[in-house]
UniProtKB/TrEMBL annotation:
HAMAP family: MoaC_B. Keywords: Lyase, Molybdenum cofactor biosynthesis. GO terms for molecular function: cyclic pyranopterin monophosphate synthase activity. Its EC number is 4.6.1.17. It holds the Pfam family MoaC. The keyword Lyase applies. This is Cyclic pyranopterin monophosphate synthase. It comes from Pelotomaculum isophthalicicum JI. It is an enzyme of class 4 (lyase).
Protein backbone atom coordinates (compact mmCIF):
# COMPACT_ATOMS: atom_id res chain seq x y z
CA UNK A 1 0.00 0.00 0.00
CA UNK A 2 1.21 3.52 -0.73
CA UNK A 3 0.41 6.96 0.68
CA UNK A 4 -0.98 8.33 -2.57
CA UNK A 5 -4.71 7.70 -2.69
CA UNK A 6 -4.87 8.20 -6.47
CA UNK A 7 -2.60 5.19 -7.08
CA UNK A 8 -3.54 1.56 -6.67
CA UNK A 9 -1.24 -1.16 -5.27
CA UNK A 10 0.44 -1.50 -8.68
CA UNK A 11 1.07 2.25 -8.99
CA UNK A 12 -1.67 2.78 -11.57
CA UNK A 13 -3.80 5.94 -11.52
CA UNK A 14 -7.34 5.54 -10.20
CA UNK A 15 -10.21 7.69 -9.06
CA UNK A 16 -10.54 7.40 -5.30
CA UNK A 17 -13.68 5.68 -4.00
CA UNK A 18 -15.51 8.20 -1.78
CA UNK A 19 -18.82 6.34 -1.46
CA UNK A 20 -18.09 5.22 2.10
CA UNK A 21 -16.99 8.63 3.32
CA UNK A 22 -19.13 10.67 5.67
CA UNK A 23 -21.14 13.52 4.15
CA UNK A 24 -19.93 16.74 5.75
CA UNK A 25 -19.98 20.47 5.08
CA UNK A 26 -16.68 21.30 3.36
CA UNK A 27 -14.99 24.58 2.49
CA UNK A 28 -11.81 25.42 0.61
CA UNK A 29 -10.29 28.87 0.15
CA UNK A 30 -7.49 29.51 -2.34
CA UNK A 31 -5.55 32.64 -3.27
CA UNK A 32 -3.28 33.77 -6.03
CA UNK A 33 -2.15 36.98 -7.64
CA UNK A 34 -1.43 38.67 -10.91
CA UNK A 35 1.29 41.31 -11.00
CA UNK A 36 1.25 44.00 -13.69
CA UNK A 37 2.43 47.45 -14.65
CA UNK A 38 0.90 50.28 -12.60
CA UNK A 39 -0.80 51.64 -15.74
CA UNK A 40 -2.51 48.32 -16.37
CA UNK A 41 -3.84 48.15 -12.82
CA UNK A 42 -5.11 51.73 -13.14
CA UNK A 43 -6.94 50.80 -16.36
CA UNK A 44 -8.62 47.84 -14.66
CA UNK A 45 -9.66 49.83 -11.59
CA UNK A 46 -10.98 52.75 -13.65
CA UNK A 47 -12.89 50.46 -16.04
CA UNK A 48 -10.92 51.51 -19.13
CA UNK A 49 -10.03 48.05 -20.44
CA UNK A 50 -11.51 47.83 -23.94
CA UNK A 51 -12.52 44.15 -23.61
CA UNK A 52 -14.94 45.00 -20.80
CA UNK A 53 -15.32 45.01 -17.02
CA UNK A 54 -12.37 42.86 -15.97
CA UNK A 55 -13.45 41.85 -12.47
CA UNK A 56 -16.96 40.85 -13.55
CA UNK A 57 -15.75 38.70 -16.43
CA UNK A 58 -12.93 37.14 -14.36
CA UNK A 59 -15.37 36.38 -11.52
CA UNK A 60 -17.71 34.51 -13.86
CA UNK A 61 -14.74 32.68 -15.42
CA UNK A 62 -13.54 31.57 -11.97
CA UNK A 63 -17.00 30.34 -11.01
CA UNK A 64 -17.39 28.45 -14.28
CA UNK A 65 -13.92 26.93 -13.87
CA UNK A 66 -14.69 25.64 -10.37
CA UNK A 67 -17.78 23.93 -11.77
CA UNK A 68 -15.73 22.31 -14.56
CA UNK A 69 -12.74 21.14 -12.49
CA UNK A 70 -13.47 17.44 -12.98
CA UNK A 71 -13.32 18.00 -16.76
CA UNK A 72 -9.87 19.60 -16.43
CA UNK A 73 -8.16 17.54 -13.71
CA UNK A 74 -8.35 13.86 -14.68
CA UNK A 75 -8.89 12.21 -11.27
CA UNK A 76 -11.20 14.81 -9.70
CA UNK A 77 -14.76 13.79 -8.93
CA UNK A 78 -17.63 15.68 -10.57
CA UNK A 79 -19.22 17.58 -7.67
CA UNK A 80 -22.49 19.27 -6.89
CA UNK A 81 -21.00 22.48 -5.47
CA UNK A 82 -23.24 24.48 -3.15
CA UNK A 83 -21.46 27.84 -3.32
CA UNK A 84 -18.61 29.63 -5.08
CA UNK A 85 -17.31 33.13 -4.37
CA UNK A 86 -14.48 34.84 -6.26
CA UNK A 87 -13.12 38.14 -4.93
CA UNK A 88 -10.45 40.56 -6.11
CA UNK A 89 -8.26 42.86 -4.01
CA UNK A 90 -6.30 45.40 -6.04
CA UNK A 91 -3.01 46.36 -4.35
CA UNK A 92 -1.71 49.53 -5.97
CA UNK A 93 1.35 49.67 -3.68
CA UNK A 94 2.59 46.37 -5.16
CA UNK A 95 1.00 46.63 -8.64
CA UNK A 96 -0.99 43.44 -8.28
CA UNK A 97 -4.44 42.00 -7.82
CA UNK A 98 -4.96 39.32 -5.21
CA UNK A 99 -7.59 36.77 -6.20
CA UNK A 100 -9.46 34.67 -3.64
CA UNK A 101 -11.92 31.87 -4.28
CA UNK A 102 -14.11 30.15 -1.68
CA UNK A 103 -15.85 26.94 -2.67
CA UNK A 104 -18.41 25.05 -0.57
CA UNK A 105 -20.08 21.66 -0.72
CA UNK A 106 -21.98 19.28 1.48
CA UNK A 107 -20.53 16.02 0.32
CA UNK A 108 -18.07 13.17 0.58
CA UNK A 109 -14.96 14.81 -0.85
CA UNK A 110 -13.20 18.15 -0.57
CA UNK A 111 -13.19 21.13 -2.89
CA UNK A 112 -9.56 22.24 -2.76
CA UNK A 113 -8.99 21.61 -6.47
CA UNK A 114 -12.13 23.58 -7.35
CA UNK A 115 -10.94 26.61 -5.36
CA UNK A 116 -7.44 26.44 -6.87
CA UNK A 117 -8.89 26.09 -10.37
CA UNK A 118 -11.20 29.09 -9.83
CA UNK A 119 -8.24 31.28 -8.83
CA UNK A 120 -6.11 30.07 -11.73
CA UNK A 121 -8.75 30.68 -14.39
CA UNK A 122 -9.74 34.06 -12.93
CA UNK A 123 -6.07 35.12 -13.16
CA UNK A 124 -5.79 33.80 -16.71
CA UNK A 125 -8.92 35.74 -17.65
CA UNK A 126 -7.43 38.97 -16.29
CA UNK A 127 -4.31 38.26 -18.33
CA UNK A 128 -6.36 37.60 -21.47
CA UNK A 129 -8.39 40.78 -21.07
CA UNK A 130 -5.31 42.96 -20.52
CA UNK A 131 -2.59 41.32 -22.63
CA UNK A 132 -2.97 43.88 -25.41
CA UNK A 133 -1.48 46.54 -23.09
CA UNK A 134 0.73 44.41 -20.79
CA UNK A 135 2.13 41.06 -21.94
CA UNK A 136 4.60 41.04 -19.02
CA UNK A 137 1.95 40.32 -16.37
CA UNK A 138 2.92 37.50 -14.02
CA UNK A 139 0.52 35.02 -12.44
CA UNK A 140 1.68 33.32 -9.27
CA UNK A 141 1.47 32.43 -5.59
CA UNK A 142 -1.56 30.20 -6.19
CA UNK A 143 -2.08 28.29 -2.96
CA UNK A 144 -4.61 26.72 -0.63
CA UNK A 145 -5.31 29.01 2.34
CA UNK A 146 -7.98 27.10 4.25
CA UNK A 147 -9.70 23.75 4.11
CA UNK A 148 -12.32 22.43 6.50
CA UNK A 149 -14.63 19.45 6.68
CA UNK A 150 -14.03 15.79 6.22
CA UNK A 151 -11.90 13.29 8.13
CA UNK A 152 -8.65 15.28 7.88
CA UNK A 153 -10.21 18.30 9.60
CA UNK A 154 -8.99 21.87 9.26
CA UNK A 155 -5.95 23.14 7.36
CA UNK A 156 -4.83 26.76 7.80
CA UNK A 157 -1.83 28.04 5.84
CA UNK A 158 0.65 30.18 7.66
CA UNK A 159 0.67 33.73 6.23
CA UNK A 160 3.28 34.12 3.51
CA UNK A 161 5.86 36.88 3.66
CA UNK A 162 6.44 39.25 0.75
CA UNK A 163 9.00 37.89 -1.74
CA UNK A 164 8.63 34.35 -0.37
Amino acid sequence: MNNFTHLDDQGQARMVEVGGKEITRRLAVARGEIVMRPETLDMIISGKVTKGEVFGVARVAGIMAAKQTSSLIPLCHPLNLTGIDVQFRPDQDNNKIEIEASVRITGQTGVEMEALTAVSVAALTIYDMCKAVDRAMTIGAIRLIHKSGGKSGVFEREPIKENQ
